[in-house]
Amino acid sequence: MTTPLPAGMENPTDAVAGLLLAAGGGRRLGGRPKALLEHRGRPLVEHAVGVLRAAGCTRVHVVLGASADAVRERARLAGCVLVENPEWEQGMGSSLRAGLASLAGTGARAALVSLVDQPGIGVEAVARVLGAFEDEHTLASAAYDGVRGHPVLFGAAHWAGIAATATGDRGARAYLREHAREIRLIECGEVAQPYDIDTEADLGHLQ
Predict the structure, then answer these.
(1) Is 204 helix (H, G, I), strand (E, B) or coil?
(2) Does a cis peptide bond (omega within 30 degrees of 0) precede residue 4?
């Protein structure tokens, strides 16, 4: 019989679920869903899932929206929990709410949230933030030259408050602003580049 570890001493790979927000329709990219942009020969969503797993997330939930059926068909996402957000056009907040709701009852004590359109944020940065997990009250975020960015780790005690305030494209911004003193910033500026793939000019970052 295995003796359970005391609260807060679990392996973070078991206690923390990766939550990838990949529902965007790429409005400024001519309506090309970001999840299906090609990076290193495969869909961007597949790359992002691989980063979460390589960083230590043994379970990953992926929120889909635009062209969800095509993403399911083209991307290799075996082992992921695929969460469809029918309200994806309302912005990132709706995807965050859908993703957190999908984690209810799974036993996850925190969610490590990453965005599909930030391929410059790799395994080392994600692993650093994952390593900040202590318990369900943890709030931690990657920082770049001291400025908060992604990924962000939300302990389960914060999920209801985040869901209540996540609207439009602001995601958890309002909640994090209210709880700024509780956030542990993990500097990642020397190991990652937090650019977004938002416009045609940004496509040059893809390989």
Answers:
(1) helix
(2) no
